[in-house]
Design brief:
binds zinc ion; disordered C terminus; 2 helices; 3-stranded antiparallel sheet; 21 strands; mainly beta; 333 residues; single chain; 8-stranded mixed sheet
């Protein structure tokens, strides 16, 4: 029914997403794979054509972004428009599959009276239709007051070179800077609109204007205002020094360029009159864990998206990575 491009040689002897999970599987041709914008190298091996495309999702990225009235809509299938890591892998047992996203955010968002924390759940969506989900649902001994940081290097959640991996629902999502998307946009030292937060404010990559009011002031890498706490964790927790293993190891001190939502007000290429906007920084929190505006309910996941393994109780955690548990940091025992 579909491609014979893929060969089971050890070059790419991993599981591909099963098209049978999709309502109508696309007929897959080499042209389609190339059109998907990902990496595909083919070579001739004797008379047999062999595709070396181990990192390539089988589906094409589909995304439509439009505004209507007071709303901006992002409709997508959640498939990235760039090469991904191999999924499933040893530390992420899930397979990328198309989603049915239909997000609705305010086209002219307003700053709210209060910040809305977002320790779990989707922060926003990239312009390629892939979601930003910074907070992993991994806790020290199930204690929600100690949440493992996905990018700390202390736990292995099977992230790929895009700081991304896959939910049990098949949703590919970013925990940090989406390197493949950046490369597709030309990277470079300039302000890059990467997507929209659930509250409607735009999200930019790491560069912002030196003077937030002056686009002619040049750009610099934005520094988050968070720092590691000093000293050691309290004895009733995981113990050890504050080393970034947990989100709670950090505190906002305001030393960087950005506020506690990892954003600031200023002009941008898309908003020459100025707008509140977020940045994705290299360091914690990378993607904000707080909303400056009011998040749209269209980003809340339905229970069907959570897909606990059969026989296990449904948990309300949106970012599960069963069955692999994080290894305990050496300081925990
Ligand atoms: Zn995740």
């Amino acid at each position: 029914m579909h491609s014979h491009l893929y060969d089971s040689s050890p070059l790419h002897a991993h599981a591909h997403p099963s098209p049978s999970t999709m309502g109508s599987a696309p007929s897959i041709s080499r042209r389609m794979l190339l059109a998907a914008g990902g990496f595909l190298a083919t070579t001739l091996l004797g008379r047999r054509e062999l595709a070396i495309a181990q990192d390539h999702p089988l589906w094409s990225s589909e995304v439509t972004i439009y505004t209507q009235g007071n709303w901006r809509y992002i409709v997508s299938n959640g498939i990235p428009n760039h090469v991904t890591g191999v999924f499933p892998n040893q530390n992420n047992p899930n397979t990328i599959s198309p989603q049915r996203y239909r997000f609705q955010v305010a086209a002219r968002p307003q700053i709210a009276d209060q910040i809305t924390p977002n320790p779990l759940g989707t922060f926003g969506v990239a312009i390629n239709g892939v979601t930003f989900d910074p907070g992993a649902a991994e806790f020290w001994r199930g204690d929600r007051s100690w949440q493992y940081e996905a990018l700390s290097g202390q736990i292995n959640l099977g992230l790929d070179g895009n700081n991304a991996h896959v939910q049990p629902s098949g949703a590919y999502h970013y925990h940090g800077l989406p390197m493949g998307l950046l490369a597709n946009l030309g990277d470079g030292r300039r302000m890059l609109l990467l997507g929209y937060a659930a509250d409607g404010f735009p999200i930019y990559a790491q560069y912002g204007y030196v003077n937030p009011a002056d686009p002619a002031s040049g750009v610099k890498k934005m520094r988050s205002g968070y720092q590691l706490k000093q000293g050691r964790r309290p004895n009733n927790g995981p113990g050890g020094a504050y080393d970034g293993t947990f989100g709670q190891d950090y505190e906002f001190v305001g030393a960087g360029d950005l506020d506690e939502c990892n954003g600031r007000f200023g002009v941008t290429p898309e908003y020459p009159d100025g707008v509140y906007h977020y940045y994705i920084t290299e360091r914690f929190p990378t993607i904000s864990r707080n909303f400056r505006g009011v998040p749209s309910t269209s980003f809340r996941r339905s229970p069907a998206d959570r897909q606990s393994p059969p026989g296990r109780p449904q948990t309300p955690l949106p970012d599960l990575h069963p069955p692999n548990r994080p290894r305990r940091p050496p300081t925990s025992d």
